[in-house]
Amino acid sequence: MKDAITMDLKAEAANILTSLGLDAAILDAGTMASFSPVNGQQIASLAADDAASTAAAIDRADAAYRAWRDVPAPRRGELVRLLGDELRQHKAALGRLVSIEAGKIESEGLGEVQEMIDICDFATGLSRQLYGLTIATERPGHRMMETWHPLGVVGVISAFNFPVAVWSWNTALALVCGNSVVWKPSEKTPLTALACQAILDRALARFGDAPENLSQVLIGAADVGAALVESKKVPLISATGSTRMGRIVGPKVAERFGRSILELGGNNAGVVCASADLDMALRAVAFGAMGTAGQRCTTTRRLFVHESVYDALVPRLIQAYDSVTIGNPLTTKALVGPLVDKQAFDAMESALEAAKEAGGTVHGGGRYDAGEPDAYYARPALVEMPDQCGPVTEETFAPILYVMKFSDFDQMLEAHNAVGAGLSSAIFTTDLREMETFLSSRGSDCGIANVNIGTSGAEIGGAFGGEKETGGGRESGSDAWKGYMRRATNTVNYSRDLPLAQGVVFDI
Ligand code: UN1
Question: Which part of the chain is the Aldehyde dehydrogenase domain (predicted)?
């Protein structure tokens, strides 16, 4: 047993919130408990919202939207520029709070805040580029064009594992597009949400004349999420979380003809081909599979290794699993921090049991003694599987990598695509044919397909999201902004005649 390190994380969280202008009394304002995965300490008991307060927040957001939509988009971009500026100033504090509340190692906590800064920069530029097309019309003296308008209130539901970045992807875009935001963060990470709200409030104060309640955060349980999802006054729900959650949210929003952007589970695979740079593949797979303690939606969960390089790669990978440093992310330089809670650890244990029953050979796994008896640190596990069966086809939100040998490229591709989720994928090869096939229409069926980089750690400039049980939504870069706006097709007649399209004659 290592020496328990005494840390008062509640006091540290209180200091961070105070430095952002919040009153530390909010930490004891109610009964909704939240814990740090780092040492299991209860760090807050917050006042919770309910269905009624959610409805009131939506009404306020609707009023904010009605004023905000009239503000020119580049001016709206200025607010997001200021948000990025405030995030730069408070990067260390917010990154630290992410580590306290989500258990991320320092560089990943900071990396998450960097991702927020990046999307703010992107969205600021975008605020001058919400382009619509001008389209040739078949009628003389006419002009046809597209205009993009804000939608209204955007409901954001986010998960514990990216407690701040996912909000910023949605909010930076929603705000420049002229919408208002109501955010329901994970019940496991309410403090980082309150910190984001405080940082946005600072930007709003500098901005000056934005409407009140442009972006609100609701701390609460499933009833808050349900009230948001069911409200006809929320035209768009952007929800990040499990496929199970998406199966509830998607149909509920569709029933009222709302729009949803769903970013759900992943069961991401890496493929290591015969020609791969094995040193590169080793590092990429190690980060993809063990980074963030396997708790990214983009985590590498399956690995297909060509039989000719299996023995050169897999023993080295097992060695990396043996030697990776695990520990308290606040007091050590370990690369792997804790799982979020006991439930996550139990899920990992049952998946490993199931893998053994399905014929897998487990390397690693089990609880790791980080000197924090009330926290759940796990040894990452690499499981050699005879084929893709048992728990391999499901996402377990923990550091488990299932490794399978392949000989035939096309058969491997079949197996690669034969799981429910379709988020991210990566091939390691120097063979042009393999690479292009993997990226082609008969290759990876995922929303993200990479070559010689891992499955996780996407940049914000690209559209982020995936197919099939991942939900089909796209967030972040490229033209994902279109999901936050509605398109109108406008045809203008500036002639003195009224020719009808398709040559139709209707003379009265
Ligand atoms: C998530 O886990 O929900 O690509 C998001 C990545 C990060 C985002 C992950 N940029 O790994």
Answer: 30-487
